[in-house]
Design goal:
6-stranded mixed β-sheet, Nucleotidyltransferase, domain 5
């Protein structure tokens, strides 16, 4: 998987970005990032599944959890997106992915994901990538970028001059970071996160580091040299998966979107 950076991508940016109105942000993202295909993006998480399609401005979601199977996910997505036209599907999967296929069952969901035929289930071409890689693609602005997603687990991805390289080895940190939040409280958890980030930056030497995921808001400050990512970046990454030559537009700074749950 390869994506391209822009000549001005190395410019300095503020560490934290001010939240923008959701509908306006999504509309701007879709208008600027159109790939020519109508894409349905599915961000599968341990607590919820969020979806957005080309031309739409409302993020829809439903609860996931330990009983959610891939068949159940597809059925729920089809119901939520029933009136949305789409030609292709992008899926961010919360686990390791090789050659577009999950290689291990997710920790926080039901079973049956490995070997499941998503293209047959949706009746459309489907691309599956690690969920951290999806957010990383949406966050990428050039150079060598490390992405860390603090969600129900710790997701990581590294982009080096346009080449996306998600790795599952960082799953070893997942229980440590979560146990610090559950048992030791926020202070110890923040210390653990800061330690992991410092070690990864020292080892990988990125030009910049993006920290995203649902738990980024629990950090009272970002580690030095980091900027905050936002949930909308996963959708931008999903649209970019189907863009011509996987080109990353140079004028898409990270923004924020809030999912709206349908009753």
């Amino acid at each position: 998987m390869s994506i391209k950076s822009s000549p001005d991508a190395a410019r300095k940016r503020a560490t934290m970005r001010q939240a923008q109105p959701d509908a306006a942000v999504i509309k701007d993202m879709l208008a600027r990032g159109a790939s020519g295909k109508k894409v349905l993006v599915i961000d599968v998480g341990g607590t919820s599944v969020k979806i957005l399609a080309s031309g739409q401005t409302e993020v829809r979601s439903f609860r996931s959890g330990p009983t959610l199977t891939p068949r159940g996910m597809v059925a729920a997505v089809k119901k939520l997106a029933a009136e949305w036209p789409y030609d292709t599907v992008s899926i961010g999967y919360p686990g390791p992915v090789l050659a577009g296929r999950p290689t291990a069952e997710p920790i926080n969901l039901g079973h049956g994901w490995v070997g499941f035929d998503f293209a047959a289930a949706f009746g459309r071409p489907v691309k599956v990538v690690n969920d951290a890689a999806l957010q990383a693609m949406g966050s990428y602005e050039g150079g060598r970028m490390l992405f860390l997603g603090l969600g129900t687990g710790l997701g990581t991805a590294l982009i080096v001059h346009g080449d996306v390289e998600p790795w599952s080895s960082a799953i070893c940190h997942t229980r440590k970071t979560l146990s610090g939040l559950e048992r030791g409280g926020k202070k110890k958890w923040r210390q653990r996160v800061a330690d992991v980030v410092e070690r990864l930056i020292a080892a990988l030497q990125p030009d910049e580091t993006v920290i995203g995921g649902g738990n980024v808001k629990k950090l009272n400050a970002l580690p030095p040299g980091c900027r905050a990512g936002h949930n909308a970046n996963a959708f931008r990454g999903g649209f970019r998966l189907w863009a011509k030559d996987s080109r990353v537009p140079p004028d898409l700074p990270p923004r924020r979107a809030r999912s709206r749950r349908k009753s």
